[in-house]
């Protein structure tokens, strides 16, 4: 695993968000997901007075479940309005319910989601990006 520092995470958040901002499609959604992931990790590290992701510790659930945005949100104790109800989705070709931590895989591989689920998930990611941006300005 490659570890990142807080400056790396901050730069990645802004770079991914800028490319994903106002666009549509799998690649943009994927980068939006990664922007949120980098931003949430940045906030968590700053709150813990840590500088790098390798300082998270291998014994924590966070280090084992890095793509699980809901876990990061809970660890950060974000307001309920940000946790939201859109933390699951369905693929267009199935009835299985997937958690948001798997969304990056669907977008990475170009696998279609139910349109309504995808739009709600993207809106949720945008709201998290807004929150992270506000935290970074503090």
Structural features, described:
- With 138 residues, the chain is mostly helical.
- It has a domain at 6-81 and 122-136.
- The protein has helices spanning 6-20, 26-47, 61-64, 69-76, 80-83, 103-109, 115-136, and strands at residues 88-90, 97-99.
- The chain has a two-stranded antiparallel ribbon.
- Helix 1 runs antiparallel to helix 2 (26-47) and helix 2 (26-47) runs antiparallel to helix 6.
- The protein starts with 5 loop residues before the first helix and ends with a helix.
- The relative contact order is 0.17.
- The model has no long low-confidence stretch (mean pLDDT 84).
In short:
59% of the residues lie in helices and 4% in strands. With 138 residues, the chain is mostly helical. It has a domain at 6-81 and 122-136.
Number of helices: 7
Which descriptor suits the 3D outline?
globular
Beta-strand percentage range: under 5%
What's the average pLDDT? Answer: 84
Distance between the termini: 30 Å
Strand order of the largest sheet: 1-2
**Assembly status:** single chain
Order of helices and strands: HHHHHEEHH
- pLDDT < 50 runs, ≥5 residues: none
Structural class: mainly alpha
Biggest beta-sheet profile: 2 strands, antiparallel
Number of strands: 2
